[in-house]
Specification:
162 residues, homodimer, 55% helix, two-stranded antiparallel ribbon, 6 helices, DNA-binding
DNA sequence: TATTGTTATACTCTATAACTATA
DNA sequence: TATAGTTATAGAGTATAACAATA
């Protein structure tokens, strides 16, 4: 999701034979939860990428850090299950945050195969800032919704995936 | 999104030192529109992939076909703008559906650079079936929502991206 | 000079198979 | 025999630069 942001809403001059850029009838698509959910996610994802680049965090990085902040010692297996990430794809994510000094791996208390993941002090500090930034960015991205509408939206989305 | 489906809800026997697979505290993530939107999309996307494989249609293919059904002669440029697809990435999508005999390219009435995209009779037939299938699959994927809740959900999502 | 469609390309994301060490 | 973590790798998805034909 590199520069998705720059592609949104390009209101240029009505050049040539483009008989109405977005004057296409899309009533079927717009009646679908899947289509609308994806479109909304793309917008929020673009705002996220734009704002969180300052912290060097992609959505998955933020999710892992936030989860570790509230579940110290969680294992890769647990985080993968929670976030629907395949273990092989999780290895580099953890390794990168380890190299950045945000997390560290400690032996699991009673399972020699597993590794407990913990935030370092630097990780703790970053996740505090990051959570504030995300909450702020979310408020802006959903600024057309009232507080009550936003709660309703989240509740309805959770009825689909929970 | 190949076999995302198979990874959902794997209720196996509680094996070893996994002290609670999904017993992780994720209250911060679950309070975010971005996180919930993505999770809901993943579920619906998995159902879509599972059901629409029979028609050989991915979400983007269906979107293009549905758009062409209601906007015959639309150009690649218009479809790219509507669906937020980059033109280079659209070339193969159109070419594949052309090879399948679902669409055909006709010269644009008054712009020699552009190409009008049209459904073939086979494309028309497929999109009719596909739209029925998607509407059915959507109803099941959002079966925990009442008709009114589903409308509300779509309305709120559109307030974010429209 | 700008736009449509295109090629080539690269980077990210997601997926499977198979290995190791532990259980 | 099964699980946690890992390696290697392949396939989508998504991005940019640059070109030809047309406006």
């Amino acid at each position: 999701m590199a520069s998705t942001t720059s592609r949104l809403r390009s209101r240029a001059k009505p050049a040539s034979a483009d008989s109405g850029n977005d004057r296409l009838d899309s009533h079927v698509l717009e009646s679908l939860v899947g289509y609308n959910t994806r479109r909304a996610f793309l917008v929020i994802g673009a705002v996220f990428a734009e704002r969180m680049a300052a912290y060097g965090l992609k959505p998955v990085d933020f999710s892992v850090l936030s989860l570790l902040a509230h579940n110290p010692g969680a294992t890769s297996r647990q985080l993968c299950a929670k976030l629907d990430i395949l273990p092989p794809n999780f290895v580099n994510i953890v390794a990168a945050m380890d190299r950045r000094g945000l997390i560290e791996r400690k032996p699991h208390p009673f399972d020699g195969r597993a590794v407990g993941l913990h935030l370092t002090p630097a990780g703790e500090a970053l996740v505090k800032e990051a959570e504030r930034a995300v909450i702020e960015l979310e408020a802006e991205a959903s600024s057309k919704l009232s507080a009550r509408e936003r709660e309703t939206l989240i509740r309805l989305l959770q009825k689909i995936y929970l």
